[in-house]
Structure formats: structure tokens, C-alpha cells
Amino acid sequence: MYTGKAPYMHTWRREDETDLSGQANTMDSTPGSSDVLNPLTPMAFLEPKLANQNMISTYVYVGSLSVLLWDVLSNLRKDLPLVFRLPVRLPGVVFGLSRLSALVFMFCSAIFQTAAIDIPCKRYGMIVDWLFAVVVPMTSLLFLIRIYAIFNGNRRVRTFFTVMWLAVFAGSLTPGLGLTAANIGPTKYCKQVNVESYVAAAAVIPLVNDTLVFLAISWKLMKNAHLELHPMRRTGFRVFFRGDYLPSFSRGLLQDGQVYYL
């Protein structure tokens, strides 16, 4: 019995091993099994760390553009009368240019980060960088106009924030001078290949200016609040953070500045 079954078991095991090895050889010899399915994807030409940073930047730009579009569309009914019905004045012109330039800048930035571009990336990157030099000063100019209105009789404060706005304008020029874009490998997708250290001024100076504007306006409104019946030591923070005891216009001005700063 033993000698009769041994050849059978040995033959079965050998045939099974032959089938398995044949399947492995077939899989290994399949044409193109080890090739990259999409060799022209831009991420294939970046190091893993840079590719991860690029993807995060893509999400940030697309998310920012979505929020801006939502804000423009949700306030369109309120913004249109400022353009077509009210007299043409400097605040209205600056407001319209600020909204338009911000929308164009974010749209072009999202294209730079996500889409294949037919023109050279170096040229397109310069367009985006100089659009930044328009949108940031325009937005800051809106708050300079607000400073002029609130501190109407204070020449020192108005002069100080005028100088700060000029610093914001100078800082916003640095991306156009210190950033260089290039194509990712042979693809039509773009990336930044050179960032000079002084480009940080484009973010630091507007942040400092916005902080000072926010604090100055909040302090002025809190100081002008009618607090005769509510001592400052108990209500100052409520006025500063919530706008309690302020007139409706002043409360809206304070809360609008808080939303922008956040």
C-alpha cells in the first residue's frame, strides 16, 4: 500500500509545483507589468517630500478659490449697488478693484498649481506673482481708508499707517523679483524652483499691518463706546471682542474687521 501511493503523491506534488511556477513565470513575463502606467504624471518627477508639499499646496489653493467664489456670490446682491447705483468715489473704486483682483489672482494661482499650461511656466509664474502685487495693496488700501475715516483728526496715526501701507506695497513686490517658476520635468505642469529669502516680506509685512490696523480700530471704537453706566474695567473686553454697548454701525465695523483678520 505504501509503495503504491508514494509515486502518486510525488507526481501530484510535482505537477502542482509546476503549475505554480508556470503561473509565476507567466505573470513575470507579462508585457509592461513593471512599467509606470502614467509616466508623464508631474508627481513622478518630484521627490516624495516635494510631491507631498505640492499636493498640499494644491488643496490649499483650490480651497481658497472655492471660499472666495462663495463669498463673492453670496455678497453679490449687496456689492452690485456699490458699483452701479452709488456715486463713483475712491472707496468704491478700491473695493471693486480689490474684489476683482483677488478673484483673478486666486483663479490664476489655482491654474498654476493644478493645470497643464501651454505657455512656459516661468512666464506664467511671473504673471501670478505680479497679480499678487496688485491684490494685496488694494486690500490693504481699503483698511487705510477706514483708518482715515476713524482717526480723522489724528494726523500722526494717519501718517503712520500711510507709511505702513507703503511698506505693504513694497513687500508685495518681492514675489515678482524673488520667485522663479519652471516646468515639472517634460510636463506642462508648473512648480516654484527658486525662492529668495526676502520674499517672506510679502507675508510678514501685511500680517503686521493688518494686526496694527485691527488693534487700532478696535481700541478707537472701544474708547468711543458709551460706557458711563458700565465701567471700563468690567466691560472693556466685551466691547473689544463682541461689540457690546456699541452703536450698530460701530459694531458692524468692529465685527467686519474681526472677520477679515481671522
Automatic annotation (TrEMBL):
UniProt KW keywords: Membrane, Transmembrane, Transmembrane helix
Superkingdom, natural source: Eukaryota
Membrane-spanning parts: 93-115, 127-151, 163-185, 197-217
The protein, known as: Uncharacterized protein
